[in-house]
Amino acid sequence: MPRRSRGCQACRQRRIGCDGTLPSCRQCLLTNRLCSGPVQGSIIINQTEHVASRYKRNRGPSQCRPPSRASIVLQPSPRTILSLAFISEFTSYASSAIEALSGHTWLLQLGNLSHSERSPVLDLSLQATATAYCGMVAGNRSVVIEATRMYGEAMSQHARAISHVSKTPTRTLIYTSVILSIFETVCATNASAYSTHLDAARQMLTSSTADFAQDQLLRQIAVHVHNQTVRVSSFHCLDPTLTVGFSSYS
């Protein structure tokens, strides 16, 4: 805090020393001026502008800028990190198994879809399936129970999404049915659920207007659905056309 003179107003304005004598200081007597007398009581000095300018001068112009929005990094929650780890482990194992059998890598491509090609239901279905796989491998019953809960929620959301389909189903609906069928191979809930998901995917593929010759991912999924439908039908001695269909979601 700088020292503040208690001299009279006339001496302070002239920036000369003031002896503070009452009723008039020596300088005011010599110059025949009206003396206001020395300052009494507390002196309040506003140093805000001085301190702010010194702070800016010390930091430099580049450091005084407010942080930009791009510099703020949002950290994912531990639950999200764990789900991503489960998905990575599951897709890595399942993709290698599928590729060994059919030469296709559609599951790995499905896990690497861009954000615009995904949907919350597809993500939830993939998380449920990956969590169930890791829970079964680790023998952790609580993880499997959580995966089953996520699967039930994905089923409900998927049913609502299908109920709003007017004519042509979207790719994400087809992908979701296929992922839900894979959940049943990892952690079966009932005897008919696997074939129900497969048949839903098969009917939506039939209704799709996509160009399978140009869409490699969808073509590989269609081959997978066809092969699995034939396999399930042969196991149960059923005609593939007699399965329940995706209307049973609703």
Distinctive features:
about 250 residues; 10 helices; about 60% helix; mainly alpha; disordered C terminus
Notes on the structure:
With 250 residues, this protein is mainly alpha-helical. It has a domain at 78-249. Helices cover 60% and strands 0% of the residues. It has helices at residues 9-14, 26-31, 48-59, 78-102, 106-111, 120-138, 141-163, 171-186, 193-207, 216-236. α4 packs across α6, α6 runs antiparallel to α7 (141-163) and α8 runs antiparallel to α9. The protein is rod-shaped. It starts with 8 loop residues before the first helix and ends in a 14-residue tail after the last helix.
Approximate helicity band: 55-70%
The biggest sheet, with number of strands, parallel, antiparallel or mixed sense and barrel status, is: none
* Total helical segments: 10
Number of strands: 0
From the alpha-carbon coordinates, what is the Rg to the nearest angstrom?
38 Å
- Distance separating the two termini: 77 Å
Average of pLDDT:
77
Low-confidence stretches: 238-250
Task: Output the helix-strand order.
Answer: HHHHHHHHHH
Strand content: under 5%
Structural class: mainly alpha
What would you call the shape? rod-shaped
